[in-house]
Structure formats: C-alpha cells, structure tokens
Amino acid sequence: MTEKERLYELISARLDGELDSDGEAELAGLLASDPEYWDIFTAMSGAREALSERAEPPAELLPGVMAGVRKLGAQKRARRRRYIGVTASLAAAAVLAVAFVPKMLHRPEAGPGDSTGAAPYGLEPRDVSGPDDSPAVCIGPEGGTPVAQGPTDPATEPTTEPTDPPTEPTTEPTAAPTEPATEPPTEPTGELPEPEDGDLVNVSDYIPDIYVDLKYATDDNFTGQVIYDFTEARLRYGTVKKLMEVQAELREMGLSLKIWDACRPTSAQFKLWEICPDSRYVANPNHSGSTHSRGNTVDITLVTLDGEDIEMPTGFDDFTSRADRDYSDVAETAAANAELLEKLMTSHGFKPYTAEWWHYTDTVSYPIVEE
Q: Where do the domains of the chain lie?
C-alpha cells in the first residue's frame, strides 16, 4: 500500500468515526507532511458534507481546511482582477477606435502611437509553491484567548503548485525605515577556501554585507523561548552561492537581505516539538522533520544597505492571511517589495512557500543535519 492509499484509508475511517487514537496520530502526521494531503482531506470532507449535510469539518482539523479555502479565495480574486483588466482593455480599445479610425480614413499616414508600461522592477506573474505547516493557534495574554500564530517550518520538500498570477502593483517599492537590524554585517576576513556545495558554512563569511537576526536565538518568536544558542546563520554552500547572486542584484538597488532563520539542527527541532507538540503547527522531528534541518531553507526579508527595515507585508511570525503571497490585502509598497524579493529568489533557484512571504527553499536538497 502506498502512502497516498494509506491516507485515503485513514481519512475514510476518520469521516466514518472509526479511527482509533493510533490512526489519529498517523493521519495527523501525514496531513502535516504534505499540503497536497490537506487538499485531499478537504475534498473528501467536502464530498461527505454534501451527502450528510454536516455543518463543518472536525474542529481540530479546521486550520488546514481553512488554508485551502483561503487559497481558493485568492485564486478567485486573481481571476476576477484579470477579468476586470481584460474588460478595461477592450473598453480602451473601443475608445481608441472611435477617436482615431476617422482620422486614419482622411490621413492614411496618421495613426495612434504606441504606449508601453512596466511594473516596478520588471515584475512578472509569480509561480509560488511549497509545503509548510498550517497556521498555529497559541494562547493569548488574556484568559487563554486563542490568537493566530504560526508554524516554524515545512514538514517535507516543497513542490510547485502554480496559481493564478496576481495583478501588478502600481507603485514602486520604497524604503520606509523603521527599526535597524539587530546584528550588522561582518567585515571580510580574507580569502576563504572553496567548500563543497554540501558543506555547511557561515553565510556571513561569504556574504559579508548580509544582515543576520536569528529570531530563534532569542525569545522574539511565536514560542516566546530561545530555541538554539548560536547566532551564526549557517547554510549549505551551494545555497549560499545562490544567495550571493541575489545579494549582488539587491546591492545595486541600495538594498540587502536580512536572515531571520537558517539551518535549524534536529536537536533544535526536537525542542520546538517539546514546546509545541502539534504536527499542525510544528514539523514532527520523529517523522520527516523540517527542511530548515537540511540547511537549504532560509527565512529572509529586505532591508536597506544601512540595515533599516523597509515596508513588507508583515513581520516575522505573523501567520495571518496577510502573510501569504496573495498581496491584495496589504499596502501596494509592501506588496511590491515582497514581489521583488520573490522575483529575485525564484530566479536564482529558490522555491517560495505560499503561506509565508519570507520562506524560501533551495531547489537542491541535502541530508538532515543532526547537530
């Protein structure tokens, strides 16, 4: 029996109310391992609801179902915007025809001039994909009120799922300084030996002007606790070489990358699991683990060359719908900046995760890092 066949069997048993505790645990692990499995569960639940007139899926699995609903909503909005754009273009063409055709009949040499336009930084339709955990619900400060929080990493390797392209932003990204980065770039220390692509290296050794602010080295993260005690951002050298190319392009624009999370060893993933042992929110290290533990995944944002934050859709650890890659609910400047980052990262060999604008995984995979 394949893994997907087992998934169908477990979902069917769950919908029939015949799944025991071991089966529940196995199903939760599978659903956390691949976003496609959430889609399958949502589809099967929807079909069962249509037959049984159930009001909603099981509450404990609702976050994953709602993630699918939000994704479909984003696709519908994109299609609606595209339809409106086509309609406006046809109307404009009709106006031009009325204005210019009579003149062309009298003066054959005359004709309307061409006009062109370009989106900020030459943005193109996006292809976003990649699995990750679904949005978390943690306990708020007042009387245990649930507040939306989020996962820390994907459970499996990302896969590409094309979505409808959004409309282009109408304003160019601007640098709106807020707070400086917590750790400035280091100075070059001289020529370093050329590592193998699979070697783990300190990113700052090879990109001296990159900014590093590892959120899980502090309590400034959704757990409120320190997860690991190191402050160097470490990644596979093959991944670092791709970041070098992105940083070089940003440098010419007066911008820089800032890293929020990089390689997270399995020991750190076990600590996350100990704090929040829920596979809907944290990748279970006893199963497939996190792609951060492979040293090829990075959580990243944009700052100025001086380390000042610029306007982005959200901050780190914001797992509301504003953090996904449907930027219709954020400011145009923030959307343009996020799309600039996405355009550069994907053009240099990274895959984005749909629900987190800051999360990118190298298309080349590597083994899990234990320590």
A: 120-362
β-strand partners of 140: none
- Alpha-carbon dihedral angle through residues 105, 106, 108, 110, given to the nearest 10 degrees: -110
| Cα 311 to Cα 12, 176, 178, 333, 336, distances in angstroms | 45, 6, 8, 7, 9
Q: Which residue numbers are catalytic?
A: 356
Inter-residue contact 126 to 342 (CB < 8 Å): yes
C-alpha torsion sign, points 159, 162, 165, 166: negative
Question: What span, in angstroms and rounded, lies between the C-alpha atoms of 9 and 299?
Answer: 35
Instruction: Please name the CATH architecture into which domain 120-362 falls.
Output: 2-Layer Sandwich (3.30)
For the chain, report the end-to-end CA distance as a whole number of angstroms: 34
CA distance 297 to 368: 12
pLDDT along the chain (371 residues), means of 10: 81 83 81 78 70 48 54 59 61 60 48 38 42 38 38 45 45 48 53 87 96 96 91 97 97 97 92 81 79 94 96 89 90 95 97 92 91 70
- Two tokens, residue 222: 């959704």
Taking every pair of C-alpha atoms in the chain, what is the biggest distance, in angstroms?
Answer: 83
